[in-house]
Structure formats: C-alpha cells, structure tokens
Hints:
The protein is α+β, with helices and mostly antiparallel strands.
Amino acid sequence: MRRVELRDPAGGIVDAVDVAAAGTFRLAGPARGVGPVKFQLRLLDEAHALVDTVSVPIVVTGGDTLRVIVRAGPINPEIKYFRRWAEDAGLATSLTAALTEGITQNDGDARLDAGSLAAADVVLVDARGWASLTAADKAALSDAVEHGLGLLLRADAPLAPETIADWAALGFKLTAAATPRSITLDRYLGLHDRTAFTMAPVDVDAPGSVTAVSSDDATGLLWWHSRGAGRVGLSRLVDSYRLVLLGDAERYGNLWASTLELISRPRPAPPSGPRLPGTAWVFERVVLCGLGAAARVLPSADGSDVALDVDAHGCAGYWPATPGWQTLQSDGAAWPFYVRGADDGASWHASLDRQATLDLVTPPSSAVGSPKPAVRGPNAAATGPAPSAPSLPPSAPMSRWPWFFAWLALTAAIWWRERRGFRLAVRVA
C-alpha cells in the first residue's frame, strides 16, 4: 500500500498515513508563527521508496485578539486546559467560576453586563456556570447575542430543570440520558490510533441547527445556529483535554480554535488583495489580477524586481524565472506567492498538462452538466477567471485529405494538358 508523509520546513515528519483504495488521504500539521512557510508532501510506494514530492506552501496570517468570557462551575480539567491553551494562543480570557453558593473564583472581568458583552467576541458557559447566572445575566446574554455575540453552551454535567428550559428557549431541546457514552473522533481529528472521548449523558434535539462536529459513528457533538446577528452553539463533548494528556496539544488547540472561530462574533472581512496564482511553475506563464498600475514582482533575495505590464483590467502576465517564494508589490502592499521548481510535483504537473490538452480538443457538448476544469497553459490564469471575454468554442483543424486530392487532380489536369499539347506539336512538325 502506498504511503504519504507530511514534512515540516525543517524536514521532520509531522504526519503520515496510508493512501486509501480510492486514492484519498488526510494529513494535518501545525504551522508555527506568522508568514510564508513551505511543507512537503512525499509519496512512497509499497517498498517505501520515494515516488514523488510536492511542495505545500501556505501563508500564515495573524488575526485580531479574540476576547472570551468563561462562566463555569468548579474548575475541572476541561476548563483548566482550555485556559492554558487560550493563554498560549494569545486570547484575552476572563473567568468566573462558581465554586459553591456565594463563593466564586474570578480571573479578570467576566461580568455579563452590556458593556462587557459588547466588548467580548464569545461567551463560554458550562452547565453549572449557567445555573449560577442571574436573570439579569441571562437577559443581557440574550440581547448581546442578538447584536452579534457568540454564545457556546457546554452540556458537560446533569442539567437543572431551569437550565433545560433556558437552553430550549435558545434552540436546544435536551433530555437526560442514562449514562455518559464513549465515542471516538479519529476521523474528524485525523487520529491514527483509536482514542476514546466522553459524550455527556444528554440527548439533544436541535432543529434548524448545523451539526459542526460528529463522532466516528455520526453522532452529533457540536451544533450551532444563527440568532439575530450572533450565533449560539452547544457542545456535549466532555473531555477534549484528553488530547493534551496524550501529547497531542496541537490537535486540541485546533479543535478549540475552529470551534471558537465558528461561534464567535463576526469580524469584517479583510480587504481583498490581488488574485495570486494557486499553482505556478518556473518558466511557465501565470496571470496576476487585481493589480495597481505600478505593480512589481520581487523574485529573489538579491532585491532584483520585475515590473509588470498591467492592462486596463488590472491583470498582467508573468513568467517566473526562479523557483521559491516571490513577492508581489502593488498599491503599497506586498503579497507572497510560491513558484514551484520544474521537478516539484512532476506527476501532478503531468496530470494537469494532460487534462489541459483534453480540454482543448473536447467538444463543449461533452461537458454539459459538469464544470469545466481550469486550463493550464501559456494563456491560462492560475487563480480565478480572467476578465470576461466572448466565449468561443474550441476549433480543430480541417482534415487535409480533401485538399490533397484537389491538388492531385489539378496537377494531373495540368500535366495532361501540357502532354497533349506536346504530342500535337510533334505531329505537325
């Protein structure tokens, strides 16, 4: 069975898996730090000999600090490891933990008044934490969600009847189950060893909600739905911290990061930049669009640059002469993109060339009902469509045989005429 490896920029193996019978696989690895970074995918045959390598370039961008308010019951391992991860990830987190009636542990300002909630991005509340909220807290939360706040509910313990009623009003109908249930998340997390997690003893009916995380047996674990301008989510996964205990803090962080990104207050979209090539090989033309009039490419570390001839649509063709990271400069900003070497992903490169050739000769009628793949080649844009132009069907050259026979007939007729005239001249003489 063939195998694929994902190697980090230092050459270390961060993940490896056998290729499925359908030719699919899934790998994951952490990107440490902000900026351009290149991973490498290596395909091995049955004898673990190298077949091909493909660069996996990514650009990691920094985001704004996420502001999180946590309202919980007594500190448990899940809250403990969440706080540790949040601090390492640079989140601004404040906590109020209800230890016993009338006694709380506070870390930062975790009040649920209008001002604090307007400044927060997401509020995380577990079952015991919700039971400690006042009616004013709940009303402030509901109003803040309508105005964009994200609210994540954790059904991690038996729920009080009042909590069940409150959460039903938020769109999640819960009923107590007999016992906690053991589940696995190997498929969702990309784990290769069977790892057991715990699902809270509660059944969830979430009409109109989206199931964001499911166990390997398709049991829902995390749901969310929109409420006004914000979102409300519910999770019944109790012990994701087991990932940390198993030495997989990176997947634990990825799980929480994706969850908070899904639930938290929406942020304005970053300004759109130029359309960069998704795939670019050295010595092959790529098209860059969305450019200013004085756009340039810095292709190498020596500072040399190439001025681009930008057309009226804001696009320009570029022929990279060196592989590696290159930088597009336009309108006072810079965007990195990666150019592959000639031998980078040779099998993939050949497959794209083959498909591009087939696209050029396949009649349009054969592609009805299916999207047409992007055509690679000297006039193809690597990312997104080029400026609109009249759509013309591909043309094929006319067969040359009819022209050959016409030439042959004409030549024979001229030859016969000349030969007949020569015979007449001889007889007269």
